[in-house]
Amino acid sequence: MTTDQTTYDVLIIGAGISGINTAYRLQQSLPDATYAIVDGRNNWGGTWDLFKFPGIRSDSDLFTFGFSWEPWTARSPIATGESIQTYLRHCISKHGIDKHAIFQHHVIAADWSSETQLWRLETEHNGQKKYLYARHVVLGTGYYDYEDPLAAKIPGLENFKGDVLHPQFWPEGFDYSGKKVVIIGSGATAITIVPAMAEKASKVTMLQRSPSYVLPVPIPKEASFVEKWAPTSIARMIVRFQHIFGLYLVFFIPRWFPNWSRKFINDVNKSELKGSSVSVDPHFIPKYKPWDQRVCYSPDGDFWAAFRSGKADVATGVIKTITGSSILLESGQELDADIIVTATGLRMRIGGGIKISVDGAPIINREKFLWRYMMVQDVPNMYAIVGYTAFSWTLGADATGILMMRLLKYLKKNGYSSATPRCSNPNQKQSPIMSTLNSTYVTAAASSGVLFKTGTEGPWHNRVHYLQDLWRAYFSSITADMEFTKVST
């Protein structure tokens, strides 16, 4: 066991999008603050360093998924995993964030001491425990479990003689050329993998229990009028605003006009499937309304092109059992397979599974509200970076980062050592965070109790949308339901 005697002003847990953005905001707002970014892995990128499956790409546009302070400059709004990693490396190098990494330190627990007004982080490094200390801790850990994906009950899977792969743990260099592949799932990951694997596999079949909404996203082939004629900085600002406005249209129009939106998406799907053997009904007629679960996107319609090529197919039904070389559905349909890919979802985990305690008393997520969707009720100086599920993640993460900097500057100005959210009405109506979606992974997380909760009053309410959240980040009260402590350390 070793102890780093350095006491940091801020320790950021997580070297992905959320952690990098928070580090930049901290450097700009409080340039004298000492900080480090702690991550159990040995590289930057979080999700984009972990996932290696075929076709890995963003499912949000990079003009809003990228950082506002370092605009995405490529023409395509949808980027490959490799392109995103290159972009992130550029950002951290340009702004000196790469000098603050503490890699291969897996954070196990975090305990706040009211006496010392410090956090003690218990980490594991090369098989040994190591302790780190900080005045503030940021949970930039994303929203899913890196080690344990959402388990799906697939009857007879143990009988299968071929390869069974999960996208979260894709083996490097895996060769599927000429193989028959069945991808179980219909979410964003499956929509991404189908066209990518169809290029080399002899046949790819997407097997879904229920359909998802899928829309093609056109990729510009040349610069827009704004990009050609406006100064670069102004053009980038306009393009970013255009994509934010587009997110509003794509999200709110289906909410306001669900029946019209269903018909519109169905008509687009019919047009895209012309020339293929795949029909819209039943394979692309979801039972739910758009944005009750996430709408999936296909860059330049590559998903549909795979069906038109004859290299991909789709089956909708319930698995009865799996044999050594096939999947048998309850309908009687049999799907031959050499490889099964279980794209059945992520297991949500807010806070990276870290055991949080205050003076030794454990914090139970499901019992605690989030103050302004950022700080955990009754927990001093801890900030959870939670992005959007419907909009680009980074927009929400940045709104949180801006609000956090306001609070840190307020503490410094007034000589406070800690801020602790205290809920004035714990009996208010409540719901788990992210509960606006009824996707399987969200409902599973809500029922398991791993999610914090939001309320309906004051600073405890759920997030609404980006522009309102951004306004609140800059102008909302940072003293409402907040207890401040002034202790000399």
State the end-to-end distance.
Answer: 25 Å
Give helix % range. Answer: 25-40%
- The secondary structure category is alpha/beta
Number of helices: 13
**How can the largest sheet be summarized?**
9 strands, mixed
CATH class of the largest domain: Alpha Beta
CATH architectural grouping of the largest domain: 3-Layer(bba) Sandwich
What is the radius of gyration computed over CA atoms, rounded to a whole number of angstroms?
A: 23 Å
Overall strand count? 25
What is the fold named in CATH at topology level of the largest domain?
A: FAD/NAD(P)-binding domain
The total number of structural domains is 2
Shape: globular
Q: Could you tell me the mean pLDDT?
A: 91
Topology of this structure?
Elements: E1 2-13, H1 17-29, E2 35-38, H2 47-50, H3 62-65, H4 81-94, E3 101-102, E4 106-113, E5 118-125, E6 128-139, E7 163-165, E8 180-184, H5 188-198, E9 203-208, E10 214-217, H6 225-229, H7 232-256, H8 258-273, H9 280-283, E11 296-299, H10 302-308, E12 312-316, E13 319-322, E14 326-329, E15 334-336, E16 339-342, E17 355-358, E18 361-362, E19 370-371, E20 375-376, E21 382-384, H11 393-414, E22 418-421, E23 431-432, H12 440-448, E24 453-454, H13 466-475, E25 482-485
Parallel strand pairs: 1-2, 1-6, 2-3, 4-17, 6-21, 7-16, 8-9, 8-16, 9-12, 10-11
Antiparallel strand pairs: 4-5, 5-6, 13-14, 14-15, 17-18, 19-20, 22-25, 23-24
Helix pairs in contact: 1-11, 5-10, 7-8, 11-13
What does this protein structure show overall?
The structure is a single chain. The protein has 489 residues and is α/β, with parallel strands linked by helices. 29% of the residues lie in helices and 23% in strands. Strands 1, 2, 3, 4, 5, 6, 17, 18 and 21 form a nine-stranded mixed beta sheet that branches. Strands 7-16-8-9-12 form a five-stranded parallel beta sheet. Strands 13-14-15 form a three-stranded antiparallel beta sheet, with no helix packed on it. The longest helix is centred in the middle third of the chain and has 25 residues. The radius of gyration is 23 Å and the shape is globular. 42% of the residues are buried. The mean pLDDT is 91.
